[in-house]
Write a structure and sequence with these properties.
Radius of gyration: 16 Å
Largest sheet: none
Number of helices: 9
Number of domains: 1
Strand content: under 5%
């Protein structure tokens, strides 16, 4: 399960990277605080390629990976506290909470960001992807709505968002049976 969570985190990082990479240079101040590779490396150490992750799955238990991520959590929390204007670090912190089993804490942070930044597609997508992993119909419906809102803000994410909405519809349909 931890390995699947790690893969999910890599997927979320990819989506975040896609969204960050597609920003124009004339973006507003709230999106100009992109998390640099140096910041990520400082918070989490160097990022291992996917090949390393799959070999790690075969050769090591997942427990050391959780301990490593847990030990870095305090450093990330300090960075967020020191730079509360950096939205990317807050998104990373929320995703980390979710991966470490503190889903409620991650959702709370993401909902707070969504209230502060109602026109930020990255926040909406991140919150929606966390909510869609839940098993409550209300969370799934909220995720559907957040994806719709993100598409209105950033039409480039429509294909990805529609794919996720298809997964949510399937999940809701199986719940109603």
């Amino acid at each position: 399960m931890i390995i699947v969570g790690g893969i999910a985190l890599v997927g979320l990082a990819f989506v975040s990277g896609y969204l960050i990479g597609s920003k124009s240079q004339k973006a507003s101040i709230e999106t100009n605080n992109a998390l640099s590779a140096k910041d990520v490396e400082h918070a989490f150490g160097s990022i291992q390629p996917v090949e390393h992750i799959s070999s790690m799955q075969e050769n090591e238990s997942a427990e050391p990976a959780v301990k490593s991520l847990s030990s870095l959590l305090a450093g990330l929390e300090q960075k967020v506290a020191a730079h509360p204007e950096n939205i990317d670090q807050q998104l990373l912190l929320a995703q980390t909470y979710n991966e470490l089993g503190s889903r409620d804490k991650g959702i709370q942070l993401l909902q707070s960001l969504n209230k502060k930044l109602p026109s930020n597609a990255e926040v909406k997508i991140t919150l929606a992807t966390v909510l869609m992993k839940g098993s409550e119909a209300q969370e799934l419906k909220e995720a559907m709505q957040l994806f719709d809102e993100a598409i209105k803000i950033k039409p480039d994410v429509a294909s990805m968002a529609r794919m996720y909405q298809g997964e949510i519809k399937s999940k809701l349909k199986s719940m109603s049976k």
